[in-house]
Design brief:
4-stranded antiparallel beta sheet, 569 residues, 18% strand
Length: 569
């Protein structure tokens, strides 16, 4: 069918409206640019930020003496030798400024004795993680940034837009082609600078903490346009994701801040603590890092010492009721509504796909190497190496979002008007408006099949046999969906949306599985059961490129920083 596309233009286009996207839009607008902030969801209410209930790592030093160099040292240690040290430094050095800016904008960080308070988190050498109390950090951050966006001149917003591909002209990125979900119409957005802030890929997994639009869209957009991805094998599993009893309306990763405060015990089905058997004796405190915690839990389950639903137990029964209520506040009442009394019963927890350390390769200006294209937040790879330090995710969203907005604004102010039409505009319009193919497939079922494949064979514990099995399934599914979208293309046609999602998800899943198969070692979040040791030969980053439609890998030395010696001293 032939449909005339809707058209608009802007100076800076931001794809994704989580913390990174909104912060980027605010900064780009400060430079005098016209900004368009687009999302598949409601602006500021999709993605990971609004779901985040925990802490933000930053070396404020207001309560305990601290300095960003110490935060940097801990970030490098968590990354197991693979951090892009310039990006890690940027995250740690500029984090305090962003936290103070958010404080001025009214986010409501928890305070003690007149200053922002901080708590301890695994992997940190001192308390440095700030928060908004009682599981409100993510919602408070999102609300504050939404309010700031609404008050900032020059920012337009558009929801219900599924970005299909980046527009290119003479090797430059000049905007995007999108599908308007409400009408089914193609939308061409011309932009002098484009920022990808679409978050991570954890929707690829059956058990995940992500919203429904976290399927790696930004990675696929960048890869098809010619950008590089880095560290794609490193998917972080949150070790104590909620498993049972079922809770209604509560985040599956809600337990972490209460372990920080109260030292909840991890127990196997013999009601024994077990982390000490895997090299971490917590001694009643929450000190185990996420990669080590996930490994320990899965090994207990594998050994037959798991809980009835396939996890382990998390118990606060040793904590006096008054301390439970003091720590949990109104959450205690929500738990009671779900029939959970923590003074009398443990809950079941298990690893859940939570965050992706890999992503689009950028420099410290958030430039991707493609003129006009920038990235921010979890869409960026490299800063966290093989394992992200607890609390760094929202810090990364703030810092990288701010830098991307500044850089894109500067680029747009130097650029000429974008070229229209782009070299690939006709192909995008043809894809969005394509007639339904004769062969019908169940796209929703295929999404579930991919999620199960990734969970079982590309999960927290990996083997060559499982990874090869996953790659065979991914290749077969890629052939099955073909190159023409399912569905009629009418208003809110979820079959067409699922097909577009699968197109991205399969490409990204292949990137993860290929990189995981190539890395024949265990390091950070990559646990190879057939290669259980860390190898010095693998102290390198893997980069992914698309060449002639095929995912290819290359190895490069880790980008280092002159501050490494100072941070380690």
């Amino acid at each position: 069918m032939t449909v005339e596309p809707l058209r608009t233009e802007t100076d800076v286009l931001v794809i994704g409206s989580g913390a990174a996207g909104m912060y980027a839009a605010i900064e780009a607008a400060k430079s005098g640019c016209k900004v368009l902030l687009v999302d598949r969801s409601l602006i500021g209410r999709g993605g990971a930020t609004v779901m985040a209930q925990m802490t933000v790592a930053v070396a404020l030093g207001a309560e305990t003496p601290d300095d960003w160099h110490y935060h940097y040292k801990d970030t490098l240690a968590a990354g197991r030798g693979l951090c892009n040290e310039s990006l890690a430094r940027l995250l740690c050095e500029e984090g305090p400024d962003c936290i103070r800016a958010m404080d001025e904008w009214g986010v409501g960080w928890a305070r003690k004795d007149g200053h922002i308070t901080a708590t301890m988190a695994p992997g940190h050498d001192r308390p440095r993680c700030v928060y908004v109390d009682f599981l409100n950090t993510g919602p408070a951050v999102s609300k504050t940034l939404r309010t700031k966006v609404n008050k900032t001149d020059g920012i337009r917003k558009a929801g219900d837009l599924c970005v299909v591909d980046l527009l290119k002209h003479d090797g430059k990125i000049v905007g995007v082609g999108a599908l308007h979900l409400g009408s089914g119409a193609p939308v061409m957005i011309s932009a002098k600078a484009t920022i990808i802030a679409t978050g991570g890929l954890t929707r690829l997994y059956r058990r995940n903490s992500a919203s429904s639009n976290m399927g790696g869209d930004g990675y696929a957009l960048a890869l098809r346009a010619g950008a590089s991805l880095v560290d794609m094998e490193f998917v972080q599993f949150f070790p104590i994701g909620r498993l049972a009893p079922r809770l209604i309306g509560m985040d599956p990763i809600m337990w972490d801040p209460f372990r920080y405060k109260l030292g909840g015990k991890l127990l196997n089905n013999r009601m024994e603590e077990f982390t000490q058997n895997y090299g971490v004796n917590e001694g009643g405190k929450y000190t185990i890092t996420r990669d080590a915690g996930s490994y320990a839990i899965l090994k207990e389950v594998e050994a037959g010492r798991g809980s009835p639903h396939g996890g382990v137990y998390l118990s606060f029964q040793h904590v006096p009721e008054v301390k439970l209520r003091e720590a949990f506040g109104p959450v205690i009442d929500k738990l009671a509504e779900n029939g959970i009394d923590l003074t009398r019963m443990p809950v079941e927890v298990a690893p859940i796909a939570h965050y992706h350390m890999g992503g689009i390769a950028v420099d410290t200006q958030m430039q991707t190497g493609l003129p006009g294209l920038f990235a921010a937040g979890e869409a960026v790879g490299g800063a966290n190496g093989a394992n992200r330090l607890s609390g760094n995710a929202i810090t990364e969203a703030f810092v990288f979002g701010r830098r991307a907005g500044q850089s894109a604004g500067e680029f747009a102010n130097r650029a000429f008007a974008p070229a229209v039409p782009a070299d690939n505009e006709a192909a995008i319009i043809d894809l969005v408006t394509a007639d339904e193919p004769a062969h019908a497939i169940n796209t929703a079922e295929l999404v579930q099949t991919l999620q199960a494949t990734m969970q079982d064979d590309v999960g927290a514990l990996r083997t060559a046999a499982g990874l090869k099995r996953a790659l065979a399934t991914i290749d077969a599914m890629t052939a099955q969906i073909g190159d023409r979208p399912q569905g009629s293309g009418k208003s809110f046609d979820m079959r067409r949306v699922d097909w577009l999602d699968l197109r991205n998800m399969l490409m990204v899943a292949k990137s993860v599985a290929e990189a995981a198969l190539a890395r024949t070692e265990t390091r950070g979040a990559q646990h190879r059961e057939d290669f259980p040791e860390t190898s010095p030969d693998w102290a390198v980053n893997q980069f992914v490129k698309l060449r002639d439609g095929r995912v290819t890998l290359s190895k490069h030395a880790v980008l280092q920083n002159t501050l490494v010696g100072a941070a380690a001293s």
